[in-house]
Amino acid sequence: MNPMSWLMIPTSIMLSTILVTTSTHWIMTWTCLEINTLSMVPMIAKPHHPRATEAATKYMLTQTLASMTILFAATMNALETSQWEMTSTTNHLATTLITLALMMKVAAAPFHFWLPEVTQGVTTMTGLSILTWQKLAPMSILLTLSDKINQIILLLMAMMSITIGGLGGLNQTQTRKLMAFSSIAHTGWILSTMTIAPNISMLTLTVYILSTTPIFLMLHSTSSSTVKDIGTMWTLSPQLASILTLTILSLSGLPPLTGFMPKWLILNKMIMFNMVTEATIMALTSVLSLYMYLRLTYISSMTLPPNTNTMTTKWRTNHKTQPTPTSTLAITSTLMLPMTPTL
Question: Which domain of life is it from (predicted)?
């Protein structure tokens, strides 16, 4: 890909996302979502591999279907209210359709099937952008409609996402697919308080991005594409393996790491609103995801390969230098829990 393409495509992705977060008109929002999708497809198909082509096709079809549903629902609402403003969405059927379409865009259960396959078929850094940056635009629309969305639908999808995200990651050996199921589970936590406390949902999304980004950067730096590759990281860089272990534990939500903060606030808020049953189900099903993360930490920090690797370089590419944001984001994703009382 030539330098002009590398300049135009990321710029289009960033600008379209920013415009979605600042737009209040449905046509403008839909147009920016389409620009975002069209800009992401070349990034996914860049490796010129059959699996990358398959991932690009699945991503394009899924996002196009969701965008068509949003445009159809917005038109239905405009026919009834004569308004294209997002805040004037009063048609219940239109609101439900838009909610389902946005669930498809953020890969919440039961519309999650495309995300693991797409993430597995792309490069590590492209997978990072799909699991983090690409959630910002749909989440901003959900935040705008948070007072109009059916709470029962969101709670059902949240509980399904947490359960399926944990179950799907139990038997995975591919790190990218495992992180995709982790994203599905965290999407459920984000959606659970979208109607009763949108600020907590945005905090949960922020903490998830801060925790996922350094993990992907470390996986990219060591070219670790499978769980078995993580097991050899300790002999090559004990410091990197230690940071990876702490960051994964933070992503799992164990105290006293940063990842415990959003789950603590979410469960506390749900209990305050008498959602004790839903909070209990979410807390119990999150144990599935916890097992998935503990398996990763056990392999990365508590096991050694059968034979000590004396080679200076592994058979796969090893990037010696670590990107500067990795250590900063890792520290942020593990040591921010004391800030909870101020939020």
Answer: Eukaryota
- The answer to whether the beta carbons of residues 337 and 257 sit under 8 Å apart is yes
pTM for the model: 0.91
C-beta of residue 46 within 8 angstroms of C-beta of residue 106: no
DSSP string over 157-171: HHHHHHHHHHHHTTT
Q: CA torsion angle for 31, 37, 43, 46 (degrees, to 10)?
A: -110
Which residues, at least 6 apart from 112, have a Cβ–Cβ distance to it below 8 Å? 161, 164, 165, 184
Identify the H or E element spanning 179.
helix 175-192
Please report, for the chain, the start and end positions of each structural domain, with discontinuous segments joined by +.
1-149, 150-343
Closest to 67 in 3D by CA, of 150, 141, 160, 127: 141
Output the DSSP codes for 205-266: HHHHHHHHHHHHHHHHHHT--BHHHHHTHHHH-HHHHHHHHHHHHHHHT-TTSTTHHHHHHH
* Number of Cα atoms under 13 Å in the Cβ half of residue 155: 17
- Alpha-carbon distance of 232 to 307, in angstroms, equals 10
Q: Any bridge partners for residue 342, and if so which?
A: none
The amino acid sitting at 229 is D
Tens-level pLDDT at each residue, the chain (343 residues): 677 877 899 999 999 999 999 999 999 999 999 999 999 999 999 888 899 999 999 999 999 999 999 999 999 999 999 889 998 888 999 999 999 999 999 999 899 999 999 999 999 999 999 999 999 999 999 999 998 999 999 999 999 999 999 999 998 899 999 999 999 999 999 999 999 999 999 999 999 999 999 999 988 888 888 888 888 777 777 888 888 899 999 999 988 889 999 999 999 999 999 999 999 999 999 999 999 999 999 888 877 665 555 555 554 444 445 556 777 778 787 878 877 766 6
